[in-house]
TrEMBL record, chains A, B, C, D:
Residues 3-306 form the Phosphofructokinase domain. The gene is pfkA. The record marks 112 as: Important for substrate specificity. GO terms for cellular component: 6-phosphofructokinase complex. GO terms for biological process: canonical glycolysis; fructose 1,6-bisphosphate metabolic process; fructose 6-phosphate metabolic process. It comes from Desulforamulus ferrireducens. The active site is at residue 135. This is ATP-dependent 6-phosphofructokinase. Its EC number is 2.7.1.11. Keywords: ATP-binding, Cytoplasm, Glycolysis, Kinase, Magnesium, Metal-binding, Nucleotide-binding, Transferase.
Amino acid sequence: MKRLGVLTGGGDAPGLNAVIRAIVKTAIREYGIEVIGFRDGFKGVLEDRHVLLTESAVSGILPRGGTILGTTNRDNPFKFPVAEGRFEDRSEECIEIIRDRVDALIVIGGDGSLSIAHELALKGLPVVGCPKTIDNDLAVGQAKTFGFDTAYAFATEALDRLHSTAESHHRIIVLEVMGRYAGHIALHSGLAGGADIILIPEIPFSYNKIIDKIQDRLKQNKRFSLVVVAEGAKEVGGEMVIQKMIAGSDDPVRLGGIGETVARQLERLTGIESRVTVLGHLQRGGSPTPYDRILATRYGVAATDLAVQGQFGYVVSLDGEKIKPIHLSEVAHGIRKVDTEGELLKAARKIGICFGD
Amino acid sequence: MKRLGVLTGGGDAPGLNAVIRAIVKTAIREYGIEVIGFRDGFKGVLEDRHVLLTESAVSGILPRGGTILGTTNRDNPFKFPVAEGRFEDRSEECIEIIRDRVDALIVIGGDGSLSIAHELALKGLPVVGCPKTIDNDLAVGQAKTFGFDTAYAFATEALDRLHSTAESHHRIIVLEVMGRYAGHIALHSGLAGGADIILIPEIPFSYNKIIDKIQDRLKQNKRFSLVVVAEGAKEVGGEMVIQKMIAGSDDPVRLGGIGETVARQLERLTGIESRVTVLGHLQRGGSPTPYDRILATRYGVAATDLAVQGQFGYVVSLDGEKIKPIHLSEVAHGIRKVDTEGELLKAARKIGICFGD
Amino acid sequence: MKRLGVLTGGGDAPGLNAVIRAIVKTAIREYGIEVIGFRDGFKGVLEDRHVLLTESAVSGILPRGGTILGTTNRDNPFKFPVAEGRFEDRSEECIEIIRDRVDALIVIGGDGSLSIAHELALKGLPVVGCPKTIDNDLAVGQAKTFGFDTAYAFATEALDRLHSTAESHHRIIVLEVMGRYAGHIALHSGLAGGADIILIPEIPFSYNKIIDKIQDRLKQNKRFSLVVVAEGAKEVGGEMVIQKMIAGSDDPVRLGGIGETVARQLERLTGIESRVTVLGHLQRGGSPTPYDRILATRYGVAATDLAVQGQFGYVVSLDGEKIKPIHLSEVAHGIRKVDTEGELLKAARKIGICFGD
Amino acid sequence: MKRLGVLTGGGDAPGLNAVIRAIVKTAIREYGIEVIGFRDGFKGVLEDRHVLLTESAVSGILPRGGTILGTTNRDNPFKFPVAEGRFEDRSEECIEIIRDRVDALIVIGGDGSLSIAHELALKGLPVVGCPKTIDNDLAVGQAKTFGFDTAYAFATEALDRLHSTAESHHRIIVLEVMGRYAGHIALHSGLAGGADIILIPEIPFSYNKIIDKIQDRLKQNKRFSLVVVAEGAKEVGGEMVIQKMIAGSDDPVRLGGIGETVARQLERLTGIESRVTVLGHLQRGGSPTPYDRILATRYGVAATDLAVQGQFGYVVSLDGEKIKPIHLSEVAHGIRKVDTEGELLKAARKIGICFGD
């Protein structure tokens, strides 16, 4: 092997740059091969936009959020958008360009990008995947994914900030965090930030239970409550709250979402002033935590190892303290949800956190 | 003087606890007098709820946000809410309780609380004011107010976080910050966080000018833009964007506000994906910055000095490096706005920041 | 069971308060039993100093470093210091007081405190252990211990800070971190902070190898280097660098230690200006990271569960995602060292980090 | 004017990059002139090493510590080091190269670099100065200098961290901070971080006074004390503590300095365990605070304005809210010391902080 390609796909996440840096360093120092980066995911492949990644190109990027290669959500080569609502299969062209430029490709991405990688692998492209999701909901064995630690750390910091306002004003403060299908960020940040109530998609909630908890706190002379809500949380028997869309966007703006609904209802039902904060994109950005930097670095090294060893069609994955490759076909058959019978959630209940059920 | 009273009024701000601590320490150590704190502003006075503030009561509160005394926005004794939409003048009762409990009162608060303090002073109450506003829009001479440094520092951190997402995804990212009548937080955080466009109430904007700036950046191959919008910013000839209210609340929830409007319009007009983040109450909370801790401490010491010296009817104020008392009658005749001809704003223009005009 | 006791022993660590809070909440809410806290470890037991831990006593302590119960390093009841260099066995007295006051005791501590707990258990005391060590070197199965994530996160932040000075001044900067017998903090912070050279007790180093690495960087036009040194690192064939002691202290002041030695030698051998920073106690303090807050909370819950179930003589331990009790006799038979053949260290080598061997 | 030069001299400080960025942006956008940067201060001038600073060269550097241009302490062209202990006057050569390359030069630096700038100005070089010192001890009128806010903010964070260890272990903790001739960092961080005792060069201390304070705290049942010591603090009648030098270095390693001495003495005199932490270079690094980013940006804009307007021989300076140029001859005639009769220090005394006098 002489030349390795790399691209980043889907939403940005803290740690992408750390993966890129590790790939480049490992390729050059350990294996003496070159690395080129395609810009803006598969879109950049199809437009043949790429850059040679030297060591100096990746110097200093370890602590930086985002991706120096750029990324996009609209780059599926099997269903490439050509006009409003029209798509074309440009996968052959994509494979051709990749084969022309590099001997193997590392795809760093989530659910969507790894599915594309799998389809390309089925068509014979030598590809290795590197899993990324800040929601922690990607089902890659037991693998941890980088970005999650940074995301819930920021949500925890937000709770720390909101705590003093809630307490000083005797208010209910609702924090809406990411998690459309799984409540990992809500559960972890809620535990770490001392939330009183945590609402997640896995456990439909009822307002009565929440109000019981708030009343219980009032009896203990605690006149404020902190509520963390995952954006996909819903009432028992209810639907996910429809969110408003910015015209032409495939990513709903998280306004008028579940956080606002919950705050409004709780104010109405308890008479206690309630406020909502929606974290939104703040959860995606910022310098990765040390934990995420290390995990991302390990994934970059392991993906390069796999590529050089010719073990294509796999995703790298950290299981406990060991890196284990998982076949791309096993990825993304569904979402990894919070284990509602798991020890973590039970611990949360034991210290009195209410899940609305 | 034997006993000093203190209360915190209006919205919470980082540094309130530092003021309280400084008052208590100065009163006890320097003057050998006692301090009691009324809970929840003037509401707590009328309900005669108070607590003796010993040194151990204020131990460890310097770095904490919020106020250990509690606060509220609904406590004007001259216009005290008794039922939905009905008010009573309970100022005499308020003065009586205060006189019964303490020899003088320090009121820590913003515009509203200091106006009340002024009216009480006119009725003969020995009162000293301590100014607070995180928007920096309180017109107390040239005085700086604590809380502002912390608020714009957090807005700057938010811009740092959003920067990598904007750049990786080639998006327009809009950050809505506090500032209904003055754009200090937007201007300062925009400058410190490297914003490309800053929209403030003092300078009505036109979308054409913003788009020119974005196009200009595209020509330089900068495919993303960061926009900071004060919540009170408005288009030339336009109105302030009406915000939705949570029923029964006097504080509008900042959803569907100017930030969302700007993001939506810019996406429509440029075709570039745009996202909005609304900081909201996150700006109020958190540990005060070292700057704010020192300023708050100085104000607490100075307010105690004034009270003990019998200089009532004044507000403490830091002018340059000196504490200067200002008469309560001079406070709050309007808002301190951003000086649009000032050197700071001119510097921002010289480095290419667009204000939409 | 009616009453549970808890104490914290040994050096303080971020997360101790989170454990205490979780114990109190679980005991009261889940089991309806009371908790009392002994002050200052076993010393406080012998002096019968304790406090009732209500929910309000642990309110707000989750994000705070240190321990509200106090701690000490000089409290072994089996070898209690009575005068300069003289000790007494006061274990019987200790057991008696504990039995008088509570039905079972949870000991939160490291190596030393857990050994004491084990000895007390052998004498029949109903005791449960909760492991703590910020060095991550406690050998409790595969268990993670809280405090470590916070410690290496701060060391990483320090490297981020030192990086710009090193680069601007073209210097060698040496950061000395904790780790007398194991290099976990050095390895993790070095990886996360982009160190070029990491020196740990497990791998004796030679200056020649380090200089080769520095020369290699110079050839790439990188005129600075970042070195992380664990305090127990040593040259091949060398001894651990003897550190000066503050008279009468059992804890060496980390001045004139290995960090300074390495900086001095590298400056002499390369002619490049070199500087050293010793992190010392800064690594112990501060608010625990969200990861550590969750881990500490889980440990607190699990320890309370064990105590209530009467499973005495065990230590709680997190293995993967599951809590598993480990017998106290299995703890502390030696130190958990960095696995020099492990995947983590190999990954570090592959991206070019030099370990001096 | 067609071309402006810029260099950074002396120790690095947070904000240098923000100045460089502001100069480049202002020069290009406002005045349409080019900027080149000399590398590594005047040393780089003499070696004719420079780089064209385009807008893309300064993109993204606002939040970064250090200087992209590099810097050095050994670059006085009037006394340029040619061999061990031998110097040459190379100022003519320096002026010639600068005149060849640019129409005017902006020197960003402290005491030393601004003195050189003054001497070069006297020889006719068109030069403008931009003041920098993280100690805040540069005597440029009433001017604030960037870097100071970041430095004392970090020292405050360190105190926050050490506080919990001090309290948990009932120890005296000593933090040694920068300040060889002036105690600004010690005073500000001590006030903001809740120190009990602050020792600065301007106020010689006696151990008796410190011990009185510690005893006083013990009586209040406060069994720990936080001491901040500026590196230049000294006992009444004593000398500055001689610090060990790394051979061949002009910058003493701050080990075995006053911090260690004070900790050792206090432990001996009180019998309370004492520990010391020396912050050292950590105070120089890291991302500048928002305050420093704004100040540095204003200075960069103002320096460019002066250069383009031909107002040479001046230093930019912020007085209150206005930029005022000060003549280079007025700079650096001594050190700006802490005003021991000033309102800030008096406020510190009133809340009970002990200065050892």
